[in-house]
Amino acid sequence: MGKGGQDYGKSENIGSKSVKDGDSFAPWARDVKECEEKYGVSRDLGLSSDEVERRRKIHGWNELEKHEGPSIWRLILDQFNDTLVRILLCAAVVSFVLAWYDGSEHGETGITAFVEPLVIFLILIVNAFVGVWQENNAEKALEALKEIQSETASVIRDGKKIPNLPAKELVPGDIVELRVGDKVPADMRVLALISSTLRVEQGSLTGESEAVSKTVKSVLEDSDIQGKKCMVFAGTTVVNGNCICLVTHIGMNTELGKVHSQIQEASESEDDTPLKKKLNEFGEVLTAIIGVICALVWIINVKYFLTWEYVDGWPKNFKFSFEKCTYYFEIAVALAVAAIPEGLPAVITTCLALGTRKMAQKNALVRKLPSVETLGCTTVICSDKTGTLTTNQMAVAKLVAMGPRAATIRTFNVDGTTYDPADGGIENWPAGSMDVNLQMIAKIAAICNDAGVEKSGHHYVASGMPTEAALKVMVEKMGLPNGLQHVSSSSDDVLRCCQAWANSEIRIATLEFDRDRKSMGVIVSSSSGKKSLLVKGAVENLLERSSFVQLLDGSVVELDQSTRCTILESLQEMSTGALRCLGFAYKEDLPEFATYDGDEEHPAHQLLLNPSNYSSIESKLIFVGLAGLRDPPRKEVPKAIVDCRAAGIRVMVITGDNKNTAEAICREIGVFGLDEDISSRSLTGKEFMDHSDKKGHLRKTGGLLFSRAEPRHKQEIVRLLKEDGEVVAMTGDGVNDAPALKLADIGIAMGIAGTEVAKEASDMVLADDNFSTIVAAVSEGRAIYNNMKAFIRYMISSNIGEVASIFLTAALGIPEGLIPVQLLWVNLVTDGPPATALGFNPPDKDIMKKPPRKSDDSLINAWILFRYLVIGLYVGLATVGIFIIWYTHGSFFGIDLSQDGHSLVSYSQLANWGQCRSWEGFSASPFTAGSRVFRFDEDPCDYFETGKVKAMTLSLSVLVAIEMFNSLNALSEDGSLLTMPPWVNPWLLLAMSVSFGLHFLILYVPFLAQVFGIVPLSLSEWLLVLLVAFPVILIDEVLKFIGRCTSGLQKPARIAKAKGE
C-alpha cells in the first residue's frame, strides 16, 4: 500500500529546495516561474528518472489509501456488546449447564433436554450473522471514490513525452499534458495554455453548476477551492482546451484524497439511530429490573434451599440443597427469557424491510434499513443546491430581443427546466410569424454552438457545454420561420430546428472562445455564397465591439448611447436575478473572407491561425439581443419546502455555487421570502467558519443558506447540528457531498445525477432526483416509526406479563407454570405475526402537520408504563390463576374441569408442594390428556412435577390468548376499539389467526407437544382459557378511557397557560 504522499508538506525535499514543518508552499499563489523553481523542474524536460525514484521514496504512490476495516472476528464480537444479548448469552450458558447436569443425574440424554439452550444460542448466532452482514456491506464509498481517479497520464520525463504513464506513478514536480476529455490525474498547477481557453468540469468536487475556465495567473493564497483558477484537481474532467501542468499534490494530499479521509473519518463516527439508542437504554433498565426480580425471588425462596438452626442466638448447622438451588437458577433463566423480547429484532427488521418496499414505490431507495426509522424524526434537511433543488441542467429563462425602434426592447419569459425541447414554451411568442430580429437570434444560437442534446431513455442529456445546449433547446422552442420548414430534418430529430438552421448556413471557420474577448464566433456561408460572421458571448464585451443594432423588422441602425443604456439596464436586471447572460451579434461585411471556403492556402486562413486577430475580426458588429440562463429549480421543490415547514422540519441549503445565484434560487423556491432581508441568513462557507457563534447561527428559525461551501464546511455544519441534538438528513450528488452524507444521520444521494461515491456514502438514494420525494419518504418514515412504537410497546407489555407470571409463581411457591422453552416460543413465534401486522396500521391523516419527534423522546412515558404494568399484572394473575384453578377446582364459572379425572388438592398443599414427601396418605389419581394417561402409583408427589403438564398447557394457552387480545389493544395508543375496530388493519386479524394456528400446531402434533412439555386441551378447557383471557381488552379499554379524559383535561389547562403567558 502506497503512502500516497502522506509525508508531503512535513519534510519534503523538492529539487534543491526544502520545505520544513510549517513552511507550506501554495502553488496557486505563486507565478509559473516560481513554481518551476520550487519543484526543481523545467516544463520542457520534466523530471529525470532518478529524481522520480527519489521523490517516490518521499511521497509514495499517487493513489488513495486503502483503510483496513475491522476483522470479521472483531465484527462478530461487536454484536455481543448489546446488554440484552449479554443477558441472553448468560441465560443460555446457565441453561446448558443445568440441562447437562440434569441429564447426567437422571439419565436423560435426549435432545429435548437441550432444546432451550440450543434455541437461545441459535437466536444469538442469527442476530450476530445479520449484524456482521450489514456492517460488512456498508463500506463501499471509499472504493467508489477510487474509480474516479484517472488511470493514465501524458507525462514529460527526461525530455521525452510518455503518452500513457500509469497515473499512480506520478510524483510532485511531474510535467503533465491535459487534453479535452482527459480526467485530471492529480492536483496540478497550470503552467501554460496550449489552446486559447481551458475549461474543467469540477462540479462533482466543488458543487459549481458550470464548467470553470482556468488560467495561468496566480490568485490569493487564502482563496477557497472554487477560487483557485490556476489549479486543476484530481478526478475532474477537461471539457475544453489543452494545457501543460505541474503536479503539486498526489494521493491523499489531493482535494480528492481529503474527501477520502473525511469519508473515512465520518464512517468511524457513525452514531446509532434514535430507536437503537432507546432500545439500548431500555436494555440497561431491563438488566437492572431482571437483577432486582431475581434477587427478590431468591430472597423469598432462600428457605427452600438454605436452612439453619439458632444455637445460643447464632445461626449454625447450615444445610444447603443443591437440587433446590439449581431449580431457582432455572427460574432466573426463565425470568431472563421472559423479560427479553427475543422476537423484537426480527420484527423490527421485517417492518423496516416492508417500509423500504413502500418507499421504493415512491422512488426512495433505502440502502440501510435503520434509515427508514431515522427519517421519521428528521428535524433538519441540509440540501445541496446543484442537482438537488435544481435540475443541474442549464435552461434559458429570459430572451431579450430588440424592439421596433432604437432604445426599445422586447422581453420573453422562457419556461422549462430540462433539456427536453417539449418541456415548457415561450410566453407571448409570435408562433409561425417570427420577425427578422428573432430569426437572427435563433440562427446565431443554433449555428454558433458546438453542443448537442440527445434522448437517453426517458431523459434528455447534453453533450458539450451546458449553456450552449440550453441555447439549442431555446431554438427548438422558438420554432422555425416559414421559409425554413422545407429544409428541416426529420421530425424525430431532437434538434430539428437547429439542424434546419445549420443546413441553411454552412460553417466554414470557428473563432474559438477565449477569456480576453469572452466571445465565440463562426464564419458561415449561405447557399448563395455570401459570408457572414455570427457571434455570441458576454453582453458587455459584445456591446463594446458593436457599432449597430438590428431592430424588429430587420433594419440596422447605429448603436447610440440610449440604446446601449437600455440593453445594459436589462442586463443588470437579469444578472441581479442570478441569470447568466449571453449576447448575440453578427456582421455581414467581411471583405477578407469573401472568397474563403475553408481552404488552408487562402490568405484569410492565416488570420484565423492567430487568436490575437479575433477581436479585430469581431468588430463593428450588429447587436441583435441577449438571453438569460440559469440552472433552474425543480418544479416540485417549492411545495416540498412548504410541506417541510408545516412538518416542523428546517431546510438549510449548502452549496459550492456562488452567493448571488444561490440566494436567487432560495428566494424562488421559498427557503427565503421574496423581499426578506437575508443578510444574516446567507453566509459563505468561509464566513461561517469565521463566525463567533456557529451554533447560535445554526439555531436560527427559518431557512439558512451557505454558499461557496467546501466539504469540510459541510461536515462542520452537520457535526454542529448533531451536537445540538438535531436529527440531520443531508442531500447531495457530488463527490464533495460524500463526507457530509456519511456523517449525517441519514445521507440522501441523487440516483440519476449523483456520482457513485455519493450513492455509496448515502443511506438512501432518490431514484428520480426529486427533492419532494424526501418529504414523501419522511412521511412514510413517521408512519413506520409510529407503527414500530405500537408493536414495540405491544411486545414489551407482553414481556412484562411473562415476568409477572414467573415472579408470582416463585413468590407463591407453587410449581413452575411456564418453562423457558415455552416463553421462547411465545416471544419468537407466537408474538411475531401480530407485532409485524401492527406495522401495517394506517398512518394518521395529520402526520405531516405535527412537529418531528425529538430523538430523545421516550418510547414509553409514565402513563403508558403504568398501563402496561396493570396489564402485565393481570397477565401474571391470569396465567398463575388458571394453573391454581386446575389443581384446586373441579369447575369454574360453570365450566367442568374434572372430565380428565385429575385429583384436586388444596391451595395450601399446592403452595407447599416441596414438602409432599412428608405428607401422610397423599395419593394422586391418574388422568388423561389427549391419548396419554398420566399415572402416579410409584411416586404420588410426581403429580406436582410431571403431572403439572395440563396446568402448564392452560397457563401457556392463556398467555397466548391474552397476547392476541392485547395486540388489538395496540391498534391505537388511546383510541377505543369502538372507534378503531380490528378490521381497520385486516393484516392483524390474519396474523392472529396464524399465531393461534401455530399454537394449535404445538398442542396437537405429538412430537412438538413433547418438546414443549404440553398436552392437547378439550373444548371446555378452551372455553376457560378464553374466559380468563378476554378481560384484558376490557381492562385496557377502561385505562384508555381514563387516559383520554386526563389528556382532555390537560389540554384546556395548557391553552389557558399559553394565553396567560
UniProtKB/TrEMBL annotation:
Keywords assigned by UniProt, alphabetized: ATP-binding, Calcium, Calcium transport, Ion transport, Magnesium, Membrane, Metal-binding, Nucleotide-binding, Translocase, Transmembrane, Transmembrane helix, Transport
Family stated for the protein in its record: Belongs to the cation transport ATPase (P-type) (TC 3.A.3) family. Type IIA subfamily.
GO molecular function: ATP binding; ATP hydrolysis activity; metal ion binding; P-type calcium transporter activity
Entry EC no(s): 7.2.2.10
Record's protein name: P-type Ca(2+) transporter
Transmembrane intervals: 83-101, 113-133, 285-306, 326-354, 859-887, 983-1005, 1011-1034
Alphabetical list of Gene3D superfamilies matching this protein: Calcium-transporting ATPase, cytoplasmic domain N, Calcium-transporting ATPase, cytoplasmic transduction domain A, Calcium-transporting ATPase, transmembrane domain, HAD superfamily/HAD-like
Membrane topology: Multi-pass membrane protein
Region of interest (Disordered), ranges: 1-24
Domain of life from the UniProt record: Eukaryota
Matching PROSITE patterns: ATPASE_E1_E2
Domain Cation-transporting P-type ATPase N-terminal: 26-100
Catalytic activity: Ca(2+)(in) + ATP + H2O = Ca(2+)(out) + ADP + phosphate + H(+)
Major location category of this protein: membrane
Location of the protein in the cell: Membrane
